[in-house]
C-alpha cells in the first residue's frame, strides 16, 4: 500500500507538470517509481499513461502543432528508438538506473544553469536530438526534455511548443506500444491493475496542470522542477552505483 501511495503521489505531480509544460512527466515520476518497483514494470506502466495524456493534450491543440518541425524530427527519433530498445532489454537494471540518474542530472543542470543563445538551432542538430531523445524514450520514456531543448530554439510561441512536444511524445508512445507489445513487455500480469490505479492520478494532475498553464510564472515553476530532479538524479546514481558494486 505504501508503494502505491508513493506511486500515486508521484504520478499526480508528474502529470501536473506535463499539463503545464507538455513534457516532463516521466522525468519526475520514473525516478520515484524506480525506488518502489522494477524499471521493467515502471516503464511500460508509464507508457500506458503517456498514451492517454499526450493524446489529450495533442487533440486539444491540434491547430497549434508545428508540422514542419514534426516531419524533420520523425525519422531521427524513430532511428533512436530502434537503438534504445536493445539496451532496455539487455542492460542490467543497475546499469539502467545509473544511466537514468546521469541523464536526469545532466538535463536538469543544463536547464538550471545553461544560457540560451537566442538563435535557432541549426537543422542538422535534429539528428543527435532524434537519436538521443528516441533512445531515452524507448528506455525510460524520458525523451521529452531532449526534444524540448531542440524545439525551444526553433518555436518561439509557448503554446505551439507545448503542442508540438506533446505530439512528438504521443508518436513515440505509439511506437513504444508496438515495440513493447511485440516483445512481451506489456504481458506482465500486474500492469493493467497498476495502470488502472494510477490513471485517475494522471488525469487529475493533467487537468490541474492545464489550468495552471496560463496562471503561474513558468520560469519559476520550471526552476523548481529542475531542482527537484537534481535531487532525484543523485538518489538514482547512488542506488545504481551501490547495486553495481
Task: Describe the structure concisely for a colleague.
The chain is an all-alpha fold and 245 residues long. The chain has helices at 2-21, 25-33, 39-60, 67-90, 93-113, 126-140, 144-151, 158-183, 191-212, 218-244. The radius of gyration is 17 Å and the shape is globular.
Topology:
Elements: H1 2-21, H2 25-33, H3 39-60, H4 67-90, H5 93-113, H6 126-140, H7 144-151, H8 158-183, H9 191-212, H10 218-244
Helix pairs in contact: 1-2, 1-9, 2-3, 2-10, 3-8, 3-9, 4-6, 4-8, 5-10, 6-7, 7-8
What report would you give on this structure?
The chain has 245 residues and is an all-alpha fold. It has one domain. Helices cover 79% and strands 0% of the residues. The chain has ten helices and no strands. Helix 1 runs parallel beside helix 9 (191-212), helix 3 (39-60) crosses helix 8 (158-183) and helix 4 packs parallel to helix 8. The radius of gyration is 17 Å and the shape is globular. The protein starts with a helix and ends with a helix. 44% of the residues are buried. The mean pLDDT is 84.
Amino acid at each position: 500500500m505504501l508503494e502505491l501511495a508513493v506511486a500515486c503521489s508521484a504520478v499526480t505531480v508528474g502529470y501536473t507538470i506535463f499539463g503545464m509544460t507538455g513534457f516532463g512527466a516521466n522525468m519526475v515520476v520514473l525516478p520515484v517509481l524506480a525506488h518502489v518497483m522494477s524499471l521493467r514494470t515502471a516503464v511500460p506502466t508509464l507508457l500506458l499513461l503517456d498514451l492517454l495524456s499526450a493524446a489529450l493534450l495533442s487533440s486539444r491543440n491540434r491547430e497549434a502543432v508545428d508540422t514542419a518541425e514534426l516531419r524533420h524530427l520523425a525519422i531521427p527519433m524513430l532511428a533512436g528508438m530502434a537503438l534504445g530498445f536493445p539496451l532496455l532489454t539487455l542492460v542490467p537494471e543497475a546499469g539502467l538506473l545509473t544511466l537514468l540518474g546521469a541523464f536526469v542530472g545532466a538535463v536538469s543542470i543544463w536547464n538550471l544553469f545553461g544560457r540560451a543563445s537566442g538563435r535557432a538551432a541549426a537543422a542538422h542538430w535534429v539528428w543527435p536530438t532524434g537519436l538521443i531523445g528516441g533512445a531515452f524514450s524507448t528506455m525510460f520514456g524520458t525523451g521529452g526534455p531532449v526534444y524540448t531543448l531542440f524545439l525551444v530554439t526553433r518555436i518561439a510561441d509557448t503554446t505551439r511548443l507545448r503542442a508540438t512536444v506533446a505530439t512528438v511524445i504521443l508518436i513515440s508512445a505509439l511506437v513504444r506500444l508496438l515495440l513493447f507489445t511485440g516483445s512481451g513487455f506489456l504481458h506482465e500480469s500486474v500492469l493493467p491493475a497498476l495502470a488502472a490505479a494510477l490513471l485517475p492520478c494522471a488525469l487529475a494532475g493533467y487537468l490541474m496542470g492545464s489550468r495552471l498553464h496560463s496562471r503561474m510564472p513558468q520560469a519559476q515553476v520550471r526552476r523548481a522542477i529542475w531542482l527537484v530532479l537534481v535531487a532525484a538524479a543523485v538518489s538514482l546514481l547512488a542506488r545504481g552505483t551501490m547495486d553495481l558494486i
